[in-house]
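ok so heres the complex, two chains, lmk if somethin looks off
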Amino acid sequence: MSDVYVMGVDMIKFGRFPDRSVPNIGAEAALMALDDAGLGIQDMQALYCGNLGQANAMVGQRILQEIGQTGMPVVNVANACATGATAFREAWMSIKAGMYDVVLAVGVEQMGKGLLGGAGGGDGIPKEGLLGSGTMPCVFAEAGMEHAKEYGTTFEQFAKISVKNHHHSTMNPKAMYQIETPLDEVMNAEMISYPNTKLMCSVNVDGSAAAVLVSEKKAKELGMRRAVKVRASAMASDPYTDRDLVMPDVNACTRLAAKDAYEQAGIGPEDVNLVELHDCFATAEMLHYENLGLCKDGEAGKMIDEGHVELGGKVPVNVSGGLLSKGHPLGATGIANIYEVCTHLRGEAGERQVEGAKIGMTHVIGLGTACGIHILEKTS
Amino acid sequence: MSKSKPLPVVDYLKIPDDGDPYLEGYRCKKCSSTYLGERTVCSKCFVRNEMEVIKLSETGILHSYAIVFRSFPGIDVPYISAIVDLDGGGTIKGNLINIEPDPDKIEFNMPVKITYGDALGRKDKEGNSYLSYFFEPA
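and the predicted structre for the whole thing:
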């Protein structure tokens, strides 16, 4: 099977674009990724498009209507917040399978403002606030409190994660916000679901990201200088756990996918130089230090306290600003984090560059549950 | 026309004509995994047609929680969204009441019990009332 390389990758600056259409937002990133690869839409053999909000509305084909209708096969995917990673992975698989040499993956989302989620739907009466809460800040607060129960993790430690990611975003011009948020400001912000304050919740934004993936043969033809090798692409759903009927389990599936990814790449967590992981809430990021093996179980609090996950630390996490400050356009997030890691591996991340980065990891979780992990490696 | 007897808030809450309400579970006879609502296949051990219908326990311990300060419009806050491991198997989620929504007052693993009551005055389009379950400190 051929190795797969990212030859072009880019994202738009995340923001709010209520006057634009979903395909129009997606088309912009697609053109940017094509330019980055030095290729045109006529060179693409297939398109894998990730979008959640219009999952039944052929977004991929509508993107091609804006940038070039070549007749190539298009697959539209939806997989909750793992949607973008799923589109990228489908593209990767098509090259692995020997079907194609050059394919395009696009992730795009247009979001409203406000709370996502909600407990129970269906017949009868609303269950929100009656049978607990199904709002996302609450669901991830409950997951974080499970960690607090096990290891004594504090509100302050969770809040420090938000301070870190907001700090990182001040160096990322493509992030929604570039604003420092000191610890007291994070902790004193409006409490949404304890222990997540407003500044510990990801930002709903519109955005898109895209990648051109190529076979080894094509990569050599085009030139390897800025190519990034995909060392692993792993995906898992939630295996049975005792509480998963009422408590979506983001831990077990991350651990499954991480194990698979490390095995595919033939490396361990100690070899990873930077990680973009799914910080949909500050409480979630804490869990994934351990789920991804960046530290031992029970040591996540120490990772943030001792600065190991900051830019300049042992394994910087979410130097883009993460979902907390860069923003979280659901279907785009999984490719946007691949853009971030590739940018560091290419040595093009400017002020926030992780020095000497050779291997990076991306991770997303779609509740319900899907986990997508990619390991990427510098080639030259 | 509204009925005099309240309807159950979820289908696994049973309201017998001649007895107290209770929560119903489906338990796998092979591996003892406990589900809320009807199942025919066990998603843990994959065995088919080995489910038994059980009454879930009305006591348990607080596994995890969050305190909700912002919910959807019209929902009263704050409240405690609680995950409770029931004695004898099964985990359910609901509001923890009769305790201050303050992390200093709430202890992990504290014993709780299930109580039943009107669904906070919520009615469906036909005007029917509903019975719900809640947790309170035991």
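quick notes: Chain A is about 35% helix and 20% strand. thats all i got rn
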